[in-house]
Specification:
The termini are far apart. This protein has 2 domains: 10-47 and 302-432, Alpha-Beta Complex (Aspartate Aminotransferase, domain 1); 67-296, Aspartate Aminotransferase, domain 2 (3-Layer(aba) Sandwich), CATH 3.40.640.10. Helix content is 40%, strand content 14%. Strand 3 (122-127), helix 5 (131-141) and strand 4 (147-151) form a beta-alpha-beta unit. The radius of gyration is 22 Å and the shape is globular. By secondary structure, the protein is of the alpha/beta class.
Length: 433
Amino acid sequence: MRRNIVHEGAKNLSYEIREIVTVARQIRDLGRQITWENIGDPIEKGEELNPWIREILCDLLEQPASYGYCDTAGVRETREFLAGVVNARGNGAKITPDDIIFFNGIGDAVAKVYGFLKREARVLGPSPAYSTHSSAEAAHSGYEHVTYQLDPYNGWLPDLYDIRNKVKYNDSIAGILLLSPDNPTGAVYPRGLLEEIVKIAQEYNLFMIADEIYTHIVYEGNPRLHMSQWIDDVPAISMRGISKEYPWPGARCGWIEVLNKNRDENFATYVDSLLAAKRLEVCSTTLPQMSIPRVMGDARYPAHLRHRAQIFNQRAEEAMAAFRGCDAVVVNKPGGAFYFTVMFKDGVLNDRQRLHIEEPPIRARIENLVRNVTPDKRFVYYLMGAYGIVVVPLTGFQCAHEGFRMTLLETDDAKRAWILKTIRQAIEEYVAS
């Protein structure tokens, strides 16, 4: 090309959760049946939309307005409903309908939120990192994503000392990101810890982002908190959506709730730029937005959320039981969402271990793939080749720890038991090889 047309941050656009699909399809084409444990799509794993929710969606199809454009920021009735929900929580930050902006899924919101930051302004995020956030933040800056550590020996909770030091000694950090419940670990943060992070943001005049896509999938015994309840006076953005709650991932319907916008003039100008960018697209998907007051406002919705949380909690218990006594790994029971993270202990993995693969073409392909990869990705590839189970290496979440993430979404009880038993056996076989 006459000029280099590649953005400085293009090399940072990595999404291991999806990229491993390319490898899995190659293995499938060689004859191995594939079990997808890599991505959080409840529908793909057999969950069906609750019949009463489906009826609401069908009724909306009869409304002509559901086929048209809506306001740039989103359907007004829906934004009024959501603002009312936030303000009804009692003490905490209050918002108006104008503090809510809809996007085509949280992925679209993430791209805009980071993409319209000044390039020199960095957002400090967790490690393990969710790839959508880490890649978007790194791409906007042109440098690697800056992270703070989640501690696997403390329930994957944030290391406050690390957060404070990263903020103190890197004045390019303008914001702090957190996910609770977290992806990939499923950790749910206690209020006291959240308030300590808020204090750091206040001390250094930062804004905050909370990805709350799983905020209504929290297991019994864990705090059910929204950002508006603990953010105090810090300017902040909460990210929400319906993909995991209804669940309806294909709707691509997410939104941000802007908290304490007018506490800082610079932050307010930045938020206005997000809405201006959205105007260039006209609007986000209409029908899914129209469903929100009807579904979330339905008296059956709280029971719907409780039931799903109970299901995932039970599956988390099954996963904990499956790996109990496995000396090679560290596991923490998640407190929410629908993921399960297995971390290998230091020194367990090496580049000589392997799993037996009977079929020569599959064995040859895997042996070619495992050259010059991280030790946990090596295990993941062998697991895929030997048993067809696709999980995501933990190092793919910009993490120094080795391990993998799987889901708790499989609806077939027998198949789910087979997946857990097989992975446990594969770990023991691999480590002993």
